[in-house]
Amino acid sequence: MSNNAEKMFVPNINRVMVVAYLTKDPELRYMYNRVPMVSFGVVIRREYFDLREQKTKKDSTFVRVVATDELAERLDRTLKKGSLVFVEGCLTCREVHVAEIDRKFSAVEIRAFYVQDLTYTEKKEEEIPPVPEEEQQTPPPDLQDHGVES
């Protein structure tokens, strides 16, 4: 390797953002140092148009998500199978040993540091408080002229 290659700056970026559905309820455990850890599976669904076959295709990717500390406890309380979530984190790789066949495999998972529940829950009209009149906004005059109402 030349000196120029050694001096070259190479960014270290490991950031993942996905919107996915939980495939099962979260599992909360406590690590040996009593730190809470939650894990759950998600499925990332993708729809795309195959130019070669001239038709729309669907694709699914299954990934395990892991979170720790307060985030783990919150996710265990609020998420359930089928929840739609936005997950932001980094990719990690761990080794898994399957005793039955005495083999080791590597598993890629998302180490989450932010998770937002996107599941829509329908609320009845009486549960939604009305916006007070003083907080209601009117569109600027130029928009009112074009038929836009508040």
Could you walk me through the main structural features you see in this protein, from its secondary elements to its overall organization?
The chain is built from 3 helices and 6 strands; from the N terminus they run H-E-E-E-E-H-E-E-H. With 150 residues, the protein is mainly beta. It has one domain (13-123): OB fold (Dihydrolipoamide Acetyltransferase, E2P), CATH 2.40.50.140. Strands 1-3-4-6-5 form a 5-stranded mixed β-barrel. Strand 2 and strand 3 form a beta hairpin. The relative contact order is 0.17.
Tell me the overall shape: globular
Count of individual beta strands: 6
- Helix percentage range: 10-25%
Predict the CATH topology: OB fold (Dihydrolipoamide Acetyltransferase, E2P)
So, the CATH homologous superfamily? Answer: Nucleic acid-binding proteins
Radius of gyration over all CA atoms, rounded: 23 Å
Describe, in short, the structure shown.
The chain has 150 residues and is mainly beta. 13% of the residues lie in helices and 47% in strands.
Task: Provide the descriptors you would attach to this structure in a database record.
mainly beta, OB fold (Dihydrolipoamide Acetyltransferase, E2P), disordered C terminus
